[in-house]
Recover the amino acids of this structure.
C-alpha cells in the first residue's frame, strides 16, 4: 500500500517508515516546513498531491511536564487542529484507512492500574498535560463519528511513553528518559556532586521501546479495522525513583540524586492493560527495558558530540 506518514521524519515516524518499508509498503513522507497541518488548505493539498491509500497520523506537538505547563494553549490547539484537518481530509480524499496516534495522557488522573481502554472517560486527565491529552482524546470521538456517519475506516491507538535512539534530548522539551540520560551523563563528565530531578520520585510510569511501537502501528495497518481504541505498551510499571537509579547506574554517575518536591510529579501511576493489542493486533512488546536503555544511551553517546 501507499502509506503517508505524517511526522515521518520524527522520532516514532522514522521507525514506522522503516517498518513499513520492511513489510513492502511504499512510504510517503514530507518535512513539516513543506505542509502546515494546522492549515486546512495545506492538509488538503498534501492529500491531493500524495494520493495515499492509507495515512498514519503521528505529527504532534509534544514535550515533557515543563513544556506542557508552559504551552497549554499551543499543545491543545495544534494537536486538535492537525488531527481534525487530517481526519476531514482523509474523508474528502477517500483514504482507505487512517491510523491516529493518541496518548496515554488522555487517561484520567486516577485511573486504576492497569489502565483499560474503557477507563478513558472515567475522569479528568492529570492537570499538567490535560490540554494535550484532551485534544488527542477528542480525535478518538471525531474518528468514531466519521466511522458512524461515513463508514470511514479510522483507527485510534494509545501508545504509552516511548524511548529509544533518536529521541529528543533537549532538556527544555524532552521526556523523562532522555532528560535523565543527559543530566546524569553531563554530571558524570563534569564531576557534579548532585543531580536534581523533578518531583519526589514516587510516581510510576510505563515505557515502550520505539521500535516495538512502530511494529504495533504496522500491525494495526495490516490487521485491525475496528472502532475501539487500543493500548500500545509494555505492560511493565516502574517508579521514577527506580528509573533514576537504573539510569544513574547505566551512565556510571557516582553522585547523589536530589529530588525537587516543589516541582510537579505528574500523574501518580501509569501502566497499561495491553491484552486488547495482543488479541486484535497479534502484537506485544519484545524489547527488555534494560536492553532498550542501553541502546538509547549508546545512541546519545554517539550523537551528542
Amino acid at each position: 500500500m501507499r502509506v503517508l506518514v505524517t511526522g515521518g521524519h520524527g522520532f516514532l515516524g522514522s521507525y514506522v517508515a522503516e517498518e513499513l518499508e520492511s513489510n513492502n509498503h511504499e512510504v510517503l513522507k514530507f518535512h513539516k516546513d513543506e505542509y502546515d497541518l494546522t492549515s486546512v488548505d495545506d492538509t488538503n493539498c498534501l492529500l491531493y498531491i500524495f494520493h495515499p491509500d492509507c495515512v498514519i497520523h503521528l505529527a504532534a506537538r509534544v514535550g515533557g511536564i515543563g513544556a506542557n505547563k508552559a504551552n497549554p494553549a499551543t499543545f491543545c490547539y495544534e494537536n486538535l487542529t492537525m488531527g481534525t484537518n487530517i481526519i476531514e481530509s482523509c474523508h474528502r480524499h477517500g483514504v482507505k484507512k487512517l491510523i491516529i496516534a493518541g496518548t496515554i495522557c488522555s487517561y484520567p488522573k486516577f485511573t486504576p492500574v492497569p489502565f483499560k481502554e474503557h477507563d478513558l472517560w472515567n475522569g479528568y486527565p492529570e492537570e499538567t498535560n490535560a490540554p494535550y491529552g484532551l485534544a488527542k482524546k477528542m480525535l478518538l470521538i471525531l474518528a468514531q463519528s466519521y466511522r458512524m456517519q461515513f463508514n470511514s475506516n479510522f483507527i485510534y491507538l494509545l501508545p504509552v511513553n516511548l524511548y529509544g535512539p533518536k529521541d529528543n534530548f533537549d532538556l527544555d522539551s524532552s521526556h523523562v528518559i532522555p532528560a535523565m540520560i543527559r543530566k546524569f551523563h553531563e554530571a558524570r563528565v563534569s564531576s557534579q556532586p548532585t543531580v536534581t530531578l523533578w518531583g519526589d520520585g514516587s510516581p510510576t510510569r510505563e515505557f515502550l521501546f520505539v521500535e516495538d511501537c512502530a511494529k504495533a502501528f504496522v500491525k494495526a495497518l495490516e490487521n485491525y479495522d475496528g472502532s475501539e481504541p487500543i493500548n500500545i505498551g509494555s505492560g511493565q510499571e516502574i517508579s521514577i525513583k527506580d528509573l533514576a537509579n537504573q539510569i544513574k547506574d547505566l551512565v556510571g554517575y557516582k553522585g547523589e540524586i536530589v529530588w525537587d518536591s516543589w516541582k510537579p510529579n505528574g500523574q501518580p501511576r501509569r501502566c497499561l492493560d495491553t491484552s486488547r493489542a495482543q488479541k486484535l493486533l497479534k502484537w506485544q512488546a519484545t524489547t527488555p527495558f534494560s536492553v532498550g536503555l542501553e541502546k538509547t544511551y549508546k545512541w546519545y553517546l554517539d550523537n551528542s558530540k
